[in-house]
Amino acid sequence: MTSAELLIGVQKAFMGFDKRAERASDEILEATFVDTGPLFDLVSSANNQVMYGRRGTGKTHVLKYLRRRLPNADEASVYLDLRQVGSNGSIYGDDNRPLSERSYTLIVDVLQALQDELFILAVEALETAPDAGQITTRVDALSAAISEVKVVGEVETSVEEGSKGARSTGAELALSKEPSVGFKASIEATENSSARRTARGSEKIHLNFGGIGTALSGLVAVLGIKRLWFLIDEWSEIPIDLQPYLADLLRRTVLPIGSITIKIAAIDHRSNFIVHKAKGEYVGLELGADITADLNLDEFLVFDNNQEKSTEFFRSLLFRHYSSSDHYSPVLDTPDKLIQAAFTQASAFDEFVRAVEGVPRDALNLATKVATKAYGQQISVPHVRSAARDWYQQDKHAVIRNNTPLDELLTKVISEVIGERRARAFLFPNNERVPLIDQLFDARILHILKKNVSSHDEPGTRYDVYKIDYGCYVDMINTAKAPTALFSAIDDSSGDEELVEVPKDDYRSIRRAILKPEMIVSGSTGDEPKTAA
């Protein structure tokens, strides 16, 4: 194979990378997982845990890798994608329906999904269980507890219709030697749908959480496993006002069972686990007390400005995906050999790492873009910057294209906060939550560079350092929005476009560039921000 053919093979592999973990097979997910620091050690502990991270940071990949790599044979897992729970998810977000109805529907749908997964585990356990009858009894008990609905209040029944369906599955085991020994067991689950009611006066739908928890504990006890891992993905896809009620279900039914570990993947500012009530009472999960929230993939992948660690992670990420592709060549059997073949020089790959801003999914998408741009040639810095601009325009800018407040805020950040110095970051009070900032962060247009830092002017106030996306910065070149003090896009002597230097990440140089929350709300900047270098 010639070097040109080898390069084309690499670029075809880059263009064919799986971008989303839910579409990849378990084998591919295991082969392409890249651990960093103590990430897997943290997530594989038996502690109940919330794992935060924006879209694209690898939450689904981590959960599915964990499921694949459970350390002991006597452990089992249940994986629930909350986007796929329920037959009619539109009910959850229908504000015209009472909150009680929406939350009840969600809880029952999640319980039903959990029961379906446990039903599969129960069938698998039939062949080895010492008492198969106990398994069928416990499955029936859980089904009965989930279907038990108690209505508190005055209810008038106006219409009642019923239908019943049954499903069954079984396992059979026989030994051929004489005397013959046979074993046969089956599990049947009955589904009922009935009783359309017309309520009169005050009505509250009540689930027997205690009964559900007892039935669940009993089923896990007879399945012959020491630990059940309950992996919940896409938590933030549930309407935020319903999330505390689903969290309360977990607190009352699952958390008390010591043999069950819960892992929840969520987006920080799209999650609400608790509703506080009077006298210290609450509905939901109290973070830090009921469940830990000590793992944030956004922070893990920033690498605290450690360029070497960041470069190593993304070098391994590309190599693992390449080695799992149909275009893999044993000639490129190490990450270093792959990078040397694909990129013109080390600085080009360093620029690629900077451009992906610590987001693995963006790295895979950008790899596709740069391979397309450079097809037949090694990837250079101009290829990286051109691809980053295209990726920003096609994916990230689409979020703000028709959203005037977001577009205005981004313009303000670029022109009035960043535009007066050669950097692309600013400080924002870490005790303030502004939805517009959160939306830009979630869209990967803003990224957190550093947390909990102080400024020269207000040393007692703590800030988070946000930086503007690499692709957005490059996209500003030769546009009316380009801050003139940041760079000059045209060489005055020749009139040709020059290669603009994207500022390096250095939070120490931007400690006096402060964005105040009132600037966003009022739409005026006044004289508050001090942007001297």
Describe the structure.
By secondary structure, this protein is an alpha/beta fold. Among the domains are: 217 residues, Rossmann fold, CATH 3.40.50; 123 residues, no CATH class. Helices cover 40% and strands 20% of the residues. It has 18 helices and 12 strands. The strands form 4 sheets. The chain has a 5-stranded parallel sheet, with helices on both faces. The protein has a 3-stranded antiparallel sheet with strand order 10-12-11. Helix 8 links the parallel strand 5 and strand 6. The chain starts with a helix and ends in an 11-residue tail after the last helix. The C terminus is likely disordered.
Q: For the report, how would you describe the main beta sheet?
A: 5 strands, parallel
CATH architectural category of the domain at 21-147 and 210-299:
3-Layer(aba) Sandwich
CA-atom Rg in angstroms:
28 Å
Percentage of residues in helical conformation: 40-55%
- Report the span from N to C terminus: 53 Å
Please state the structural category.
Answer: alpha/beta
- CATH fold group of the domain at 21-147 and 210-299: Rossmann fold
**Number of E-state strands:** 12
Give me the side-by-side strand order of the main sheet.
2-5-6-1-9
Give the SSE string.
Answer: HHHEHEHHEEHEHEEEEHHHHHHHEHEEHH
Sum up the overall morphology in one term: globular
The CATH first-level class of the domain at 21-147 and 210-299 comes to: Alpha Beta
Share of residues in strands: 15-25%
Any low-confidence stretches, pLDDT <50, length ≥5?
Answer: 171-185, 480-500, 522-533
What integer is the average pLDDT?
78
Count of DSSP H/I helices: 18
